[in-house]
């Protein structure tokens, strides 16, 4: 005769789990260190990374926005309509569907964390959620902590303060595999994100670059040359303008700090369209392809004027001068400082020196934010 007691125990355990899930579905008890928002408190893991349960009302969407969150990493496989609703509410959404009590495939997890890294690098606030903000959310967060170099012990200390953590063997096994195999970015010191400390550490390099821009303006004045491209002339706005890493960082910084939000959104949209055209014109060939291969003008050009004229790149400043003077300025003044500053920025971000490959980006890539994706891809490939 079969002993029914083990089966009864399993049924009771399952019933208890179901009842607990039903209670959690209609109520959310915030962790002790959660934000104090009255409608939908989220838990801040760092200054720009938050987590919690899935939003279920328009009021929740509003509350999330009020906490400066603009991006969502959605893990709810069972709520397939939610990502579209989140996008409709104005969020940028990455959907990594994971079934309840399950864990993601390592390749898909790595892609999602690539996206997360990019958003945080761009200074955006990101919210990670599954249905209840516990098991799947904890699994993905744990993997991200390992990716950022915290290691298992330090990651466990962070998770201990949260309600989110892997809840079963499958999820813990995935975390262990990711800790052993993931393409972790080797950041200078273990940290959760590129936040204010990184911005402050890059400020000296940006200051040196701005001095370089001023020296070029002085050289043009010395030779009695009026550099008016982007003001009275826009011929260079239809040509290729490749940018080094320091130039890209400076241009992206001024886009975010000098342009109003509505105009900035319009520039980013035009830049994304230009990137698409650049890729189409590449036709499977290697190398960097710029606007001169397309019929698209620079996304910063509006009504014949550069929207960032004061901060326009060096090549734009030098456009139209004689080839002899252009070559002399690049060889004598610009080449070495740009290479040196870009290498220092690379070292600050990665704690490694770049190889002999010079990272170059196009203006549309920088303005659209796509340059960050290329930068992270380069870092991973260089490991």
Fill in the keyword field for this structure.
Protein-Tyrosine Phosphatase, Chain A, two-stranded antiparallel sheet, 7 strands, about 55% helix, elongated
* Order of strands in the sheet with most strands: 1-2-5-3-4
Mean pLDDT: 78
Provide the domain count: 2
Uncertain regions spanning at least 5 consecutive residues:
4-32, 183-190
How is the biggest beta sheet arranged? 5 strands, mixed
> Strand pairing plus helix content: what structural class?
alpha/beta
Query: How much is the radius of gyration in Å?
Result: 25 Å
Quantity of strands, as a count:
7
End-to-end separation: 61 Å
Global geometry: elongated
Order of SSEs: HEEHEHEHEHHHHHHEEHHHH
The total of helices stands at: 14
Beta-strand proportion: 5-15%
Give a short summary of the structure.
This protein has 383 residues and is of the alpha/beta class.
